[in-house]
Specification:
Length: about 400
């Protein structure tokens, strides 16, 4: 009987120690036993129906852990908390269903279809100095504002030529990332016209007017949005929580909140790097394009872009997310192929492109139509600079 009482007391002591310190290893150190002995005793205690005694020390520890958990939950800024409580969005915009007007085929085949205007790589806040790139381009917030206004005016003008009666059910306005310059490099931190937060506020005001103007003209606007790599507030792009570390995502959230009560305007802001949507029977995948890296000599950006498209199509086919056309920005080159659209930039040619001997590219954005029967039809660049041509530069000449 004495041996049994001693044995039962040791089992109780072991069960209490494991409960108090949270695991067998910590309990073994406290009891000066091997971890295996503690585990064996704990198993025997459970078999004998011996439960830990909730002493005052253990109760205090539980209370402390509960308090720490509550504090952690209060401090955790999840995307739902930001959207619902800080930004104030009444409903999520990460899984917005495609608006019915993008899918309806009630209009005759003679109707032009749905226009899409691709707006990306604004690099709002960045400064491009003409003296450093042989005077082929200049950029600052004033010029960016002029180009944004020109984009809207000229896109409407082109679409009015195709359909003077404006027989469009609405317009898709794609926001493809790199909306602000950001401070991701020391040179940008030193030369940007404004820091990131004032830049977001300035661009927010300009885009509010731009989007409202599109809604007034076309009746309905659908805005799929993804983030770029320039708007991030981390040293490197995160794979986890990519969007929630980006000023692009915050800008989109503010825009969605601003237009929340305007039933003409619908946002799609996914939590991941890709956005999926349909226009009639054409399936689009929107991504920024910074995932695709490298170059292939004379072929330039096409090599990594086509390889990246192939990988995405293979990945998506395995999970039943096939798409017809991939949309991306990032490369600042307008490329419009049957299965992919690479957007130009509002910023245009800059010091980085010049120093790396990249081909000259004028500031431009992509515009196209999606027809219910024929898919992508009309394609056109929208030139946003007021200059009609690249200014000629003089070579040094020697008098005879």
């Amino acid at each position: 009987m004495g041996a049994n009482r001693v044995n039962r007391a040791s089992l109780q002591e072991t069960a209490d120690a494991v409960a108090r310190y949270g695991n067998a290893a910590a309990a073994a150190r406290e009891l000066k036993l091997s971890e295996r002995t503690v585990r064996d005793r704990l198993a025997a205690a459970r078999k004998a129906g011996i439960a830990p005694t909730l002493d005052e020390h253990l109760l205090a520890r539980v209370k402390r852990l509960e308090s720490e958990l509550a504090d952690a939950q209060k401090k955790a800024l999840t995307d739902v908390l930001v959207k619902n409580h800080i930004i104030g969005l009444a409903q999520a915009v990460s899984n917005t269903p495609t608006p019915s007007w993008l899918l309806s085929t009630s209009k005759p085949d003679s109707a032009p279809g749905v226009p899409t205007l691709f707006l990306s790589d604004l690099h709002w806040g960045e400064v491009v100095k003409p003296s450093q790139i042989n005077n082929v381009n200049r950029y600052n917030v004033d010029i960016a504002t002029q180009r944004l206004e020109a984009l809207g005016t000229r896109a409407v003008r082109l679409l009015s030529i195709l359909s003077p009666t404006f027989d469009y059910p609405g317009i898709v306005l794609v926001l493809g990332g790199d909306m602000i310059s950001g401070n991701i490099h020391d040179e940008l931190t030193a030369t940007n016209e404004m820091n990131s937060m004032p830049t977001v506020l300035d661009l927010f005001g300009k885009l509010c007017g731009f989007i409202e103007g599109m809604a007034d003209k076309f009746g309905k606007v659908f805005l799929p949005c993804v983030t770029g790599n320039h708007g991030r507030d981390t040293t490197k792009i995160w794979s986890k929580d990519r969007h929630h570390t980006s000023f692009d995502w915050l800008l989109y959230g503010f825009l969605a909140k601003h237009f929340e009560k305007d039933k003409r305007i619908t946002f799609l802001i996914p939590d991941g790097p890709d956005a999926y949507f349909k226009v009639y029977n054409t399936r689009y995948l929107l991504t920024h394009g910074d995932q695709f890296r490298g170059g292939d000599g004379m072929i330039g950006a096409l090599g990594p872009i086509i390889r990246g498209d192939h990988k995405k199509r293979s990945r998506n086919a395995q999970v039943d997310l096939d798409y017809d056309v991939m949309l991306l920005g990032h490369w600042h080159q307008l490329i419009h192929l049957n299965r992919l659209v690479v957007n130009g930039s509002l910023k245009g040619y800059d010091e980085y492109a010049y120093s790396n001997n990249f081909p000259y590219e004028i500031p431009q954005q992509a515009l196209w139509l999606t027809h219910p029967k024929h898919g992508v039809t009309f394609r056109a660049p929208v030139y946003v600079d007021r200059k009609k041509s690249v200014p000629k530069t003089s070579w040094v000449s020697l008098a005879a």
